[in-house]
Amino acid sequence: MLRIVVIRLIQAIPVLLLIAVMAFILMHLIPGDPAVVIAGADAGPAAVERIRHELGLDRPILEQLLNWLVNLGTGDFGRSLVLNQTVLSAVGERLPVTMSLALLSLVITLPVGVFLGILAAYFRGSWIDAAVMTLALVGVSVPAFWIGILSVILFSVTLGWFPSAGYAPLLADGPGAWLSSLIQPAFILSLFQIGFLARMTRSGMLDVLDQDFIRTARAKGVSEWRTVGRHAFRNALVGVVTVAGIILSLLIGGSVVIEQVFALPGIGRLVVQAILARDYPLIQGTMLLFGFAFVVINICVDLIYLWVDPRVRYD
Questions:
Q1: What is the pLDDT of residue 87?
Q2: Helix axes 170-209 and 127-141, enclosed angle (nearest 10)
């Protein structure tokens, strides 16, 4: 297993290098100058040029890229141009918020999405199947920010059940306040993923339910609950694990919109603020860390494969 992890990490190096280069190029293609943002709208050309020189933005693009890659090799992700702190410290302060939101959304998504997918597959062609797939289609199609705004108006402003914005740290304010501040955005964030997971689970279950060993189990008198839950779902679980890994990646990346709607001080909101301020080091470092997180998630999915299905082998 350790050999698999090492091989996957080595294979991820060119991927992360490509992400770093693409992030650097894309950030410098965005219109705007961070020196102008830092100097202010009333600053003169001389002040702006001085800031550009201090930040090294007047150097050739290739030189800036090489310097950044060399610093990355030493673990230096750079320093934010606006926040006056290192990229790692800025991300580290906001990481608990984003991870709490993503993991809580995953806890909501997995049981609901898997249950709806199994239900739709078992009652295929019935009104239950049609209803579940319709709900899944609505969840996939409706914009998250629109549902989020409606949810704030209904549950926060009108009913007053949940706070409309902000984050309550788990250790400082307790689990009750923490859950109250995250349950609404976590549920909104999970709507798209529930629909996606339900459709994929249904597809995988339909393939398994038509197999000969399922008909054999039923012919031997095995209970329907055991046939579907143990035999059918166990063989469809590899596909579900794959989708779950994709969903966790989407939850982390999709937190950008939800954190803006609910004013959560997470990494997604940090990225938006960095883009508006043209904070190149912060944007580039955050994108690279996101890429590394996706690589780690894929490695974890590969390891879970070995546990779910012993027939899976990696050469």
A1: 83
A2: 130
Q: Is the pLDDT of residue 44 over 60?
A: yes
Q: Which residues lie across from 86 on neighbouring strands?
A: 79
Tokens of 35: 């020196």
Q: pTM higher than 0.85, yes or no?
A: no
pLDDT for 93 equals 83
User: Would you say 266 and 282 are in contact if contact means Cβ atoms under 8 Å apart?
Assistant: no
Q: Over 60: is that where the pLDDT of 164 sits?
A: yes
Burial 193-217 (b: 16+ CB within 10 A, else e): bbbbbbbbbbebbbebbeeeebeeb
Task: Give CATH superfamily name and number for 87-276.
Answer: MetI-like (1.10.3720.10)
Instruction: State residue 312's pLDDT score.
Output: 57
For the chain, the three-class secondary structure string (H helix, E strand, C coil) is CHHHHHHHHHHHHHHHHHHHHHHHHHHHHCCCCHHHHHHCCCCCHHHHHHHHHHHCCCCCHHHHHHHHHHHHHCCCCCECCCCCCEHHHHHHHHHHHHHHHHHHHHHHHHHHHHHHHHHHHHCCCCHHHHHHHHHHHHHHHCCHHHHHHHHHHHHHHHCCCCCCCCCCCHHHHHHHHHHHHHHHHHHHHHHHHHHHHHHHHHHHHHHHHCCHHHHHHHHCCCCHHHHHHHHHHHHHHHHHHHHHHHHHHHHHHHHHHHHHHCCCCCHHHHHHHHHHCCCHHHHHHHHHHHHHHHHHHHHHHHHHHHHHCCCCCCC
47 is written with which tokens?
């002040």
Looking at residue 72, its pLDDT comes to 76
Sorted by where each begins, the domain ranges of the chain are 2-73, 87-276
Token pair, residue 90, equals: 């800025």
**Dihedral in degrees, nearest 10, Cα atoms 194, 199, 203, 208:** 30
